[in-house]
Amino acid sequence: MPLAERLARRRAERDREETEALAAELKARADRAFAVLTHIATHGHDDGSEPCVSPDPAP
């Protein structure tokens, strides 16, 4: 296998690994934001305000 081809494959693999790592980090941040917003919507803010939605929605 020519050197240029090996280098191109290594670069592509490294780029793929970096992309996957960034995607995992982005998903973790999105999951955390969703959890925080869900908690606020269900339980209200820390200032004692009322919840935005009912914990037991009517059917």
Outline of this structure?
The chain is an all-alpha fold and 59 residues long.
Helix content: 55-70%
| Helix-strand topology string | H
State which percent range the strand residues make up.
Answer: under 5%
Poorly predicted parts: none
Number of helices, where a helix is a run of at least 4 consecutive DSSP H or I residues: 1
Mean pLDDT across all residues, rounded?
84
Overall SS class = mainly alpha
Largest sheet: none
How many strands appear in the DSSP assignment?
Answer: 0
Question: What is the global morphology?
Answer: rod-shaped
Distance between the termini: 65 Å
Q: What's the Cα radius of gyration? A: 22 Å
How does this model look, in words?
By secondary structure, the chain is mostly helical. It contains 1 helix and no strands. The protein has one helix at residues 3-43. The model has no long low-confidence stretch (mean pLDDT 84).
Protein traits:
59 residues, mainly alpha, 1 helix, 69% helix, rod-shaped
Present the secondary structure layout.
Layout: H1 3-43
